[in-house]
Amino acid sequence: MTDIDPLRADIDPLRGAARAMQQVRDRCVWTQQIDHRALVPYLVEESAELIDAVETGDRAELREELGDLLWQVLFHAEIASRDESDPFDIDDVARGLTEKMVRRHPHVFGDAVATTPEQVLVLWNAAKAAEKHDRTSVLDGVSEHMPSLALAQKMLGKAAQVGVAASAKPQDPASEAELGDALLALVATARTHGWDAERALRERVRGLEGEIRSAETP
Length: 218
Prior knowledge:
Layout (H helix, E strand, L loop, with lengths): L12 H15 L1 H4 L3 H21 L2 H23 L8 H15 L1 H4 L7 H15 L16 H14 L14 H18 L3 H20 L2
GO molecular function, one term: nucleoside triphosphate diphosphatase activity
Protein name: MazG family protein
Organism: Microbacterium rhizomatis
């Protein structure tokens, strides 16, 4: 590949970023030895830093962290483009994303009508179900690598879909702030007793998974 200055004014910025990634992969000895699995910790770190920027409201940091996360996408796509058995590049990724977004927004790109967020969600879920018709469980596609609290919330939604009730013994907080206080208090209690709060929640979610799968069994 001929080197091209990715900052040239006549180059589309996204295309320039992709070309920069190509040249880095070609000429940086550290980058050359990275594969998809080795890149995962950096993806997790960059995602967390983007979340921090969103939650703190720092616009400059938000723009920078979005760029860092985009670099991760370009990095994975560039690695994939050089795979001998099943190559694809950033154009394939973008094309697939566009096709999916068009399918899932028939009220934007088709004749469907949705005038409320709830109606949009119905259309989205219907399109997703059609795409994922080979899934046999509501748990298919749920990543166990999600943070435990996010995973627990996701699991509770899946449990409701199959009629599994997960009781909550503590009194319901009256606000999100009180919820934060309650969660922090539970973690403090775990620390006092020498318990691992992360492990405790993950094991309970794993038990919920078993309940969901049992409920799905004819």
